[in-house]
Amino acid sequence: MIVHALIVAGGRGVRAGDGLPKQYRALGGRPVLRHAVAAFVRHPAVAGVQVVIHPDDAALYDAAIAGLDLSPPVHGGTTRQESVRNGLAALPADATHVLIHDAARPFVTGGMIDRVIAALAEHDGATPALPVVDSLRSGEATVDGEVDRSRLHRVQTPQGFALQPIRAAHAAAPPDATDDVAVARTAGMTVALVPGDEAALKLTTPDDFARAEVMLAAAMVPRVASGFDVHRFGPGDHLWLCGVKVPHTHELIGHSDADVGLHALTDALLGCIGAGDIGTHFPPTDPQWRGASSDRFLAHACGLVRAAGGVIDHLDLTIIAEAPKVGPHRAAFAERVRAITGCASISIKATTTEGLGFTGRREGIAAQAVASVRVPAAAADERVL
User: Fold this and answer.
1) Per-residue b/e over 52-83, b at no fewer than 16 CB within 10 Å?
2) Quick one: pLDDT at residue 102?
3) What range defines the domain where residue 291 resides?
4) Residue 15 has pLDDT above 70, yes or no
């Protein structure tokens, strides 16, 4: 059994309210689509992931899945069924089974995927489903009857199928099928019911997004890490500190622009996700980083945190120097760091060493940073390199 996942992400999501299509809206700091795709990318039984997108969403898609190993996306059609058909046609020749999943369901679990795949060993198709637990009554203004809920189910995705039969079923399907199970059943395929997961909700309305944010927040764990950097003084008339050009009697010497503040913050953020240090990503032996602006380093670290599903809660920086004085530039430093990181909570402090040590002798500047982030519990022990 060679299983591929097909993620349907070509809709507009108008019921979710104004703004980006819902599959590209931020949820816990990263796009909904990335949440949905990640579960299949990391599942050992899924050989590949194919996403179907709207022709207008190429830039949004590229940003959402940056760094993930996916097949090139295919364009959807005017209906979901047409989009699924396009996606099925794009799957590789060696694929034997497919898991069709809605991008608007960001919280699919590995257990759901396991159960669907296991059922495909004995059935043409399988769908995760939940029991209807509320009593059901028929009627309009008044109740006129009772509905037996014992045989009713709320179906979810991914819905799995043998690939060739579901291709044929979609080719012959009427245009009004409600989901892929309906297409399969119309073609006479057997579809097994396997246990779903209440957490795997579908995002449809603004209230769904609010509920999902609460669920995701409960599944986040805190990470705190520190960063430290030192650079010596050399001849010059200015230096770079926290991304701001500061007039001074000397400049800081380093392979890049030697911005100790941004370097310390970069290392702190990398530490929060176990991603090494600044030298891991930007080796001082590499000539392409000679004289480079350090905002690139900090932005890179922020991107890795977001790619891990992390949210930067607070950044604290202490600059250790006799001169230049930080006070006149504190607001500018904080604003520049805020612009680079997107973090609203920034603390910039300064101290001296009372004339002691290399900073006391005005030979250079040191900086110490602490970063606080939250990452999804499922990824808390995964390194992002």
Assistant:
1) bbbeebeebbeebbeeeebeebbbbbeebbeb
2) 95
3) 221-379
4) no
Distance (Å, whole) CA 277 – CA 268: 8
Confidence bin at 331 (pLDDT 50/70/90): very high
Q: Is residue 385 part of a domain?
A: no
Query: What DSSP element (H or E) covers 341?
Result: helix 330-341
Tell me what the pLDDT averaged over the chain comes to.
91
Output the domain CATH number for residue 351: 3.30.1330.50
DSSP state letter for 193: E
Q: Distance between CA atoms of 79 and 9, rounded to whole angstroms? A: 12
Q: Name the amino acid, one letter, at 40.
A: F
Residue 313 lies in a domain: yes
Q: Name the token pair of 154.
A: 């709320």
pLDDT on residue 56? 93
Question: Distance between CA atoms of 227 and 313, rounded to whole angstroms?
Answer: 16
Cα–Cα distance list, 372 to 58, 215, 260, 332 (Å): 33, 20, 19, 22
